[in-house]
Amino acid sequence: MRRTDSARRIIAAPPAIVYGALVDRESIEAWLPPDGMSGRVERWDPRPGGGFRMVLTYLDAADSPGKTSAATDVVDVGFAALMPPERVVQRAVFESDDPSYAGTMTMTWNLTATGGGTEVTVSATDVPPGIDRAAHEAGIASSLANLASYVEGSL
């Protein structure tokens, strides 16, 4: 069964600036980890067909056991499409021995210019069933809030 989780946010910055933060290694390390996590990019190849590997570490693993280990989620992300400054499409695969996290999740980041900046809409399709919908949507919203703070703070 296909499942889609999503979130959206208006960011007070032009699409080109927001897009830049979606395809820059240091930027992604700063804003992508949701509240309660830190992140480290281990591999980086920012082109269609390239991608990155990110280790997300829970600050308190007792409340949120990881998919890869008790304290981590490791995800390999491929860039399926890079269309500046409108869209980034990623294919994410979690490292896990638990089959409920298996499969490839597609993350589509759509950027639309608005009078106040950029509307960012994130859609995650084919979400593995082991990922709780409410927690996932809260995590996406948290990452979007981090993105807004990161981008707006750099203007």
From TrEMBL:
Q: Which residues form the signal peptide?
A: none
State one Pfam family annotation: AHSA1
Q: The Activator of Hsp90 ATPase homologue 1/2-like C-terminal domain covers which part of the protein?
A: 13-152
Give the matching InterPro entries.
Answer: ASHA1/2-like_C, START-like_dom_sf
Q: Which family does it belong to?
A: Belongs to the AHA1 family.
**Name the UniProt record assigns to this protein:** SRPBCC family protein
- The source organism is Streptomyces aureus
